Amino acid sequence: MIDEFLEHCSDNTGLDIPTARKVSAGILVILEESMGEDELHPILRKIPGGDALLASGGGGAGGLGNMAHGLGSMFSGSFGPTSGLAGLKDEFDVKGSDISAVGEELIRFIDQHAGTDAAHKVRSALPMLHQLR
């Protein structure tokens, strides 16, 4: 199911699939930091491959998780989802609008497979997503 999402995401954003995967995983890591494991993981368990996509980004325990936390701290004094999302631009050499587009695709995918309540929780955890440029 995640591979289908990544293909769809690539088609709709113009990013190649490996970049769409990295950005999606980075967003999930930021969501894990923002929402907490107790809130995000039940959502991801409703999506076959959701936990694996998060793990491919480090899942907050390393890799992108440490990068996202470090960028958040560097830009705002404490980690926050907006600064973490902005940090993904440099990490993956993409535009803010690419991150925003992938994030919107991810929210739509969550809505389709985990439900509208789950999608609202995710959107609430990323309040500035649509303003990235």
**What best-fitting shape do the alpha-carbon axes yield?**
globular
Task: Report, as a whole number of angstroms, the end-to-end distance.
Answer: 29 Å
Order of helices and strands: HHHHHHHH
E-strand count: 0
Q: Mind describing the biggest β-sheet? A: none
Low-confidence stretches: 60-66, 68-79
Which structural class do the helices and strands define? mainly alpha
Briefly, what is this?
The chain has 133 residues and is an all-alpha fold. It contains eight helices and no strands.
Structural notes for this entry:
The chain is 76% helix and 0% strand. By secondary structure, it is mostly helical. Mean pLDDT is 83; it is low at 60-66 and 68-79.
Give the tags:
globular, 133 residues
Architecture blueprint of SSEs:
Layout: H1 2-13, H2 17-35, H3 37-45, H4 50-56, H5 64-76, H6 81-92, H7 96-114, H8 116-125
Helix pairs in contact: 1-2, 1-7, 2-3, 2-4, 2-5, 2-6, 2-7, 5-6, 7-8
